Amino acid sequence: MQDRAARIRAGLTPPAPPSGTDTRISVDLAHLRRLEAQARRISFLPRQPARSVLNGRHASRLRGRGLNFEELRDYLPSDDVRTIDWKVTARTGKPHVRVYTEERDRPALIVVDQRMSMFFGSVLNMKSVTAAECAALAAFRIADQGDRVGGIVFGDADIAEIRPARSRSSLMAFLSSLAAANGLLHAESPPVTPMPMNRVLQSVARIAPRNHLILVFSDFDEVDATTEKLVAGLARHNDLVLGLVSDPFADDMPPGLKIVVSDGELQAEIDTADRAAHRRLDEMAKGRLAQVLDWQRRFGIPVLPVSSAEDSLRQMRRLMGLAGQAR
Fold it and tell me: What sign results for the dihedral spanned by CA atoms 284, 290, 296, 299?
């Protein structure tokens, strides 16, 4: 296959990292597959624990699967009288009932950011690793619940799309794409213009126009007014959950540090002892957090604040109100 995105979808680029790879920095398909057993300890079903961030004050923020109208037929003695369609009964002179079937599943689309802005970590994991692990946990659990699973994995240059399907092969295609995109991140990566978040969200809207569960794991770098409109539109027609991936160093940058940053060609030194420089960096980090939390307030979108400084499963369980339950 000549197309790079197609190779990523198939898990052919790059080759799997060697078994000795530090999974705090980079993950391979084998590592993601090992998360399957742990995934059973979280849930994305509409009924959520009281302490879950996916639970609203009075009801879950996740919709149920709903009912589909199946047929209108004659009333039988065993039927529930509450299913009688009184208008049809009055018109025909014979009792009729409306038959519904529960929707079999709710398709899920898991969107994972693997751009170079995610290749950073100061305590435990790279943000890209935390996003990949959380996405894999979610994918395994949703598939285990019987729902269709697909995803979008994007880096700075490439985007892989896996449409939701109820099959093991589709799930593995998503995980292979995720491992491949994560493996492309390294310190010697050539500088490229980052993939616009808006382009990714437009792909999400095309694949999941309505009635999907959409999970986005990203640091939400490079967002603007158009991003806000796209997020609001997705939230109107779907269950949208934002996994805001951050690192404590960026959230609370200590003063008095000299940091060398580079785009692979040029480099510059930033002195956080300079009050003006420290203030600008702090405002940039806190401004991104404030914008995503404002979407939560205005559009009713659940936000999962995920930190690269903590074990992925442990914090997912805590955010879903499961931390104190027996395992």
Answer: negative
270-272-278-282 Cα dihedral, nearest 10 degrees: 90
Record the pTM.
0.73
Domain range spanning residue 293? 4-57+105-319
How far, in Å, CA of 18 to CA of 7, rounded?
Answer: 19
Angle between helices 127-144 and 312-319 (to 10 degrees): 60
Cα–Cα distance, 279 to 23 (Å, whole number): 33
Q: Are 135 and 155 within one domain? A: yes
Q: What is the pLDDT, as a whole number, of residue 18?
A: 46
Q: Which of 45, 75, 102 is the last residue of a domain?
A: 102
Residue 326 in domain:
no
Using the structure block, give the residue that is written with the tokens 């920095």: 25
**Does residue 144 contact residue 37 with C-beta atoms inside 8 Å?**
no
Same domain, 77 and 47: no
Place of tokens 């949703």: 142
* Residue 169, domain CATH: 3.40.50.410
Q: 3-state DSSP call for residue 257?
A: coil
Measured between alpha carbons, how far is 109 from 80 in angstroms, rounded to an integer?
37
The CA distance from 108 to 240, in Å, is 10
Please tell me whether residues 74 and 179 are part of one structural domain. no
Determine whether 45 is exposed, middle or buried from the number of CB atoms within 10 Å of its CB (0-12, 13-18, 19+).
Answer: middle
Tens of pLDDT along 88-115? Answer: 999 999 999 887 655 556 799 999 999 9
Strand-pairing partners, residue 97, are 73, 84
Q: What angle do CA 167, 131, 47 make, to 5 degrees?
A: 60
Gap between the Cα atoms of 41 and 248, Å rounded: 26
